[in-house]
Amino acid sequence: MYLLFGAGQIICGQSALRQWLEAATLHVFVLFFNSEMRYWLYDGDIFALTFSFTEFNLNMLMFGSLACVYRVRSKIAHSLKKLYEAVSKLLMFLSLICYFVLLVPKNPLWNTDNISTTPIFNGLLLAYGLPIVLWIAMSRLFEEQFKRGFEALAGASVFVYISMNIHHLYNDQVEIIDNISNAEQYTYSIVWLVMAIALFIWSVVKNQELVYKVSVGFMLLVISKIFLLDMSGLEGILRILSFLGL
After folding, report:
1. Could you tell me the CA-to-CA distances from 133 to 5, 30, 94 in Å, in that order?
2. Is the distance from CB of 185 to CB of 222 less than 8 angstroms?
3. In angstroms, what is the C-alpha Rg of the chain?
4. pLDDT interval class at 59 (50, 70, 90)
5. What residue spans of the chain are helical by DSSP H?
6. Cβ proximity of 56 and 102 under 8 Å
7. What's the whole-model pTM score?
């Protein structure tokens, strides 16, 4: 990898040979990083038949970051433009697959993966916080046909990350527990309502009709949760007045 990088720096200008060497350096770096990561995660066994929560985190961030790098390269390259575009999209989809795995099969809500008790700065930040930056970057770099999808994914990722952090703050573990305290329920409602209002204001300022509809729907769902769950102990006129106030 170092030899390829050095050779690419020796060649002056933007010749085809230099672009090939730079592309080869990127490919070798991906292979090196993946092998080195598995070496440290599995005590030297890079061919271990297991994929941990942490490995999926690192793979997702690596694939997403490199997808952005390859996309930028495709805009300035000449002879390798098609190659960079193809690889950037492949890495983009690999990053999305890793995020889906972290969101469903490997989600710590129903797995026994150990998440540090330290607030904010824990495995949740890598798995569900940093991807928000990736999706925003991809919405700016990739074609218009991907823009709306990545913006929606970024918004959904914000909701997932904040909600999981609220649960983590009230419990030592991230796994779903049988009894959720009233304080945790109220925190969800307050934070979600603030998010819905912020989304509503943003949709009005940016004149985004679709986002406006989503924000109103989200707000109605949060109000329904408050009325049906949080205020289930209230009765009669007090419950009605609370609902009207919301």
Report:
1. 28, 21, 16
2. no
3. 23
4. confident
5. 2-10, 16-41, 53-76, 81-103, 123-124, 130-141, 144-170, 182-205, 209-225, 236-245
6. yes
7. 0.80
